[in-house]
Structure formats: structure tokens, C-alpha cells
Amino acid sequence: MKKIYSYLLIALLILVLAACNNSNNNESANEEETAQTETKSVIDEIKERGVLRVAVFSDKPPFGYVDEKGENQGYDIVLAKRIAKDLLGDESKIEYVITEPQARVDLLKSDKVDIVLANFTVTPERAEQVDFAHPYMKVAIGVVSAEKSPISSVEELKGKKLIVPKGTTAETFFMKNYPEVELVKYDQINEAFEALKDGRGDALAQDNALLFSWANNNPGFTVALPTLGELDYIAPAVKKGNTELLEWLNVEIEKLYEEKFFTKAYEETLKPAFGETIKADAVVVESKVE
Questions:
Q1: Are residues 91 and 203 in the same domain?
Q2: DSSP 8-class letter at 284
Q3: 283 touches 213 (CB < 8 A)
Q4: CB 3.0–4.6 Å: which of 16, 141, 201, 234 could bond 228 by disulfide?
Q5: Helices 75-88 & 243-259, crossing angle to 10 degrees?
């Protein structure tokens, strides 16, 4: 009987040791898997996914819009395709995520996109929430109005309604500097322009580069107030702290500067919309901005 108890104790001991060994092996495997996940770079994840997720506009020609064939077009799209080509070897490996101005920051924070290329103006407030790469456009706030009653100064907006798209630098600028001006706000950019055409406001404030194009293609309207505030820059944005992708983008953009890529993109996408009155160097950036 003592021998049987001894055998049982030995068997039980073997089972306990085996269970401990399996547990240690599982823990080691989990730790190794976690370590591999933690060390996997952001760029490796994009390459493994096989597509670059880019936030763009669908209703802001000539910068970002969807054409009659349902294809994304515009100045921002030309840049997105080049980034995808240099990062993934194929300009078509892009998942376009359509956005409105007020949603751009949240898309990055929630990891729904890798890069925002939606005409994103650099501001100190935004730079606290996202990281901006080198710029590829320069812009100021402008005001477009009807030719029959042009607005050429902020003083002329007193007692009138100014249309602004929500989440734009134009909205912020007027709320901060001219709170007495009555703002009529719209979620979508195309809605804002339709409101101006319908007479639901006396003028519309937005990036002047966009207004030059819109007025050129909409007879009866003029950008009589082309510049307000300081000159701003438009740049790609990545999630705050995404240093690896930010550094890759900066190197990429510096290479594009050397190629005069943005001037060529202007000639292809913006010049036909702007006409001959606006020159490339008034809009594009081809060198680092300190």
C-alpha cells in the first residue's frame, strides 16, 4: 500500500511540474508576442496592411473632390498618390477616408487614418493635438461676395451675415478677432457655398486659395477681400507622437521640394481652376519653412 501511495505522489508531482512548465512556456510565448507587437514599427504596420489610409475632402475642388466617375481628384490627391507610391510601391494602394473640416483631428486620434491631407492649415491649437510635417501650400483667410455688393473690408460686414464652414481657420479667426460679426455656420463646405449662392448670407470666409478657384468658376462673385490675418501654411498631419511616420514624411517632402513636385502639381490641378491671375509661387511651397 505504501508503494502505491509513493507512486501516486510521484505521478502527482510530475503532473504539477508539467503544468508549471506549460504555464511558463505560455507566458514566455505571450511575452515574446507582446514584445514583437510593441517593436513593430508604424511603417511596418502600414506595409503589412497594404494600403495607406488618407483623410481627404470630397467636395473641395480643386484640392480634394470626387469627379463624375466617382474617383478622387485634386492637388491633395496628387500628393497622396506620390506618398503611397514611394512608401508602398504603388500609387493606387490608398484608402481614401472622406472627412469634413471638424473631423480631421478626431480621425487621427482614433487611428482611423494614417495621414490627413485635407487642406489642413497649421495652427498652434491644432499642433497641440496632431503633428504636422513640412508644409506644401501657403494660404490666408479671404472673403468672397457678390460682385454687385462686394465686401472689401471687415468693417463692411457689420450688420451682415458671414458664412463659414465649421472647423475651419476662418471660423476661429472671426470668433476670436471679430466676435461682433454674425456667423452662419455649415458642416459641409459645399453647403456653405450653396448658402452663399442662395443669398442666405452676404459673404463667405474660407482659405483664399479655395475662394480664388470658386469665384473663377462662379460668375457673379469676387474675392474683394483676399487676405485677412497672417500667412498660414497647409501641411500633412499625423497622430500626435507618431514620430516615425512624421520623420518619413519630412524626408519625403524634402525630396519633393528638390523635384519642384508641388509646382508641377499646381500646374496640373490648380492652375486650370485659378486661371492666369494667380501664379504658382503665390500658393505652393517648395522649401522648408523655419
A1: no
A2: B
A3: no
A4: 141
A5: 110
Residue reference for cell 502505491: 4
Cell triple for residue 23?
504555464
CB within 8 Å of 92: residues ≥ 6 apart:
81, 84
| 55, 130: one domain | yes
Domain co-membership, 59 together with 196: no
SS3 of residue 186 by DSSP: strand
- Taking a C-beta distance cutoff of 8 angstroms, is the pair 129, 109 a contact? yes
How many Cβ atoms from other residues are within 10 Å of residue 220's Cβ?
Answer: 9
Residues 241 and 168 in one domain: no
Amino acid at 43: I
Query: Which CATH number is 245's domain given?
Result: 3.40.190.10
DSSP letters for 93-137 = -EEEEE--GGGHHHHHHTTS-SEE-S--B--HHHHTTEEE-S-SE
Judge if 175 and 260 occupy the same domain.
no
Instruction: Express the helix, strand and coil content of the chain in percent, nearest 5 each.
Output: 50, 25, 30
Q: Residue 211 has what pLDDT?
A: 93
Q: How far apart are CA 124 and CA 142, in angstroms?
A: 20
Q: How many domains, the chain? A: 2
Cell representation of residue 29: 510565448
Between CA 284 and CA 262 the distance in angstroms is: 6
- 47-69 pLDDT, tens digit each: 999 999 999 999 989 999 999 99
pLDDT for 71 beyond 50:
yes
98 domain-assigned: yes
* pTM of structure: 0.75
Q: Do 130 and 239 sit in the same domain of this protein? A: yes
The residue segments making up the domain with residue 226 are 139-232
Residue 2 lies in a domain: no
